[in-house]
Amino acid sequence: MTPMDRADIDKLRELPIEGVAERLGLNVKRHHCLCPFHGDRTPSLSFSVKRNTYRCWSCSARGDPIDLVRNYLNKSFVEACQWLADENAIIISEYKPEKTMTQPTKFHADFYSFLIGNLPLGSLAQDFLFNDRKYNHDVVSRLDIKSVECSGRRLLDFLRQRFTEEQLQEYGIVSGQADRKHCFFWSPCLLIPYFSVDGSLEGIQSRYLGTRMRFNTAEAQAKHDAIAAKAPRFQFSPGSHPMIFNLPVLKDLKPDEELWITEGVSDCIGVMSSGRKAIAIPSATLLTSKNKVLLASAPTRNWHIAPDQDQAGETLFQAIEATANETGAKLTRHQLPEGCKDFSEYWKRR
Ligand SMILES: [Zn+2]
Q1: 322 C-alpha vs ligand 1 centroid, how far in Å?
Q2: Segment 79-123, tens digit of pLDDT
Q3: Nearest CA to 86 among 244, 211, 222?
Q4: Which of 286, 239, 308 is CA-nearest to residue 101?
Q5: Ligand 1 centre distance from Cα of residue 48 (Å)
Q6: Beta bridge partners of 333
Q7: For the segment 32-57, what is each residue's pLDDT rounded down to a tens digit?
Q8: What predicted TM-score, i.e. pTM, was given to this entire model?
Q9: How many angstroms is it from 49 CA to the middle of ligand 1?
């Protein structure tokens, strides 16, 4: 894994502790939640927003955001940092104490359409999707997945064909000064569009592909790898917030047809490649009330899930199960074969 410097680690320690807790699936109310580290019946774990720490008054579990992730997900320090770095953009954009979600503006809608409408699915992306992940070509093309594979400078030139410098800055697409400007996206990356049930483009999630780039010399490779190690794996572009992926499928479902509910986009595309109809919850722990309503509106009551073999997968399963019980849906749980962390891995290996 990635060499991280002091400043990166400090940044992760500054991620809002309650946002991190919610991202992990803990139900935070008035700065308290049930302590996951002992059999807790009344919320004994409290958060200090000021110190950005947690502390359990029963079992004396305590620490900062990195400790919380380490202990809750049973990860090493380095893995916990990586997890937080991956989730960073989402925690920041999602975690607003007042729980308001901003709608994308007209600019954002134009921006998403411009990217998805004009960029190709490049060779790095094709290699990743078809050779590595073994996804189905029709599925990928139906989902309208594209990629950015040019340099940051080229990408900026491309965006300037359609948008003004002021717009790009104002909406957070471009930052930096003069000749050191850079784009929000870490490139090369996949661009994964999120559509509403009615098919309007509401957001884009990028998935970094830079770790797959190969260079001719060891020196060039090392230089690139040092940069690539800092890139977040997934980012939601400005204006978009985590939402259910592949919502338009809800319109096509017949009343008894199987609907697979997956954790994250990768699993969803894997399940779809196997010929099933699927949606993805953006992360294990993120079944917001809005998403519950959407799920409950599915025309079918025949739900299926193959949870990831980890704590986060279990958390998602429980949240979906509760929603199924509330809405009278039948939820079938499938067990992944031994050694397969998630469906995507199972699909790749089959
Ligand atoms: Zn405790």
Answers
A1: 24
A2: 898 888 888 776 665 554 433 345 567 888 899 999 999 999 999
A3: 211
A4: 239
A5: 15
A6: 305
A7: 999 999 888 888 999 998 899 999 98
A8: 0.70
A9: 18
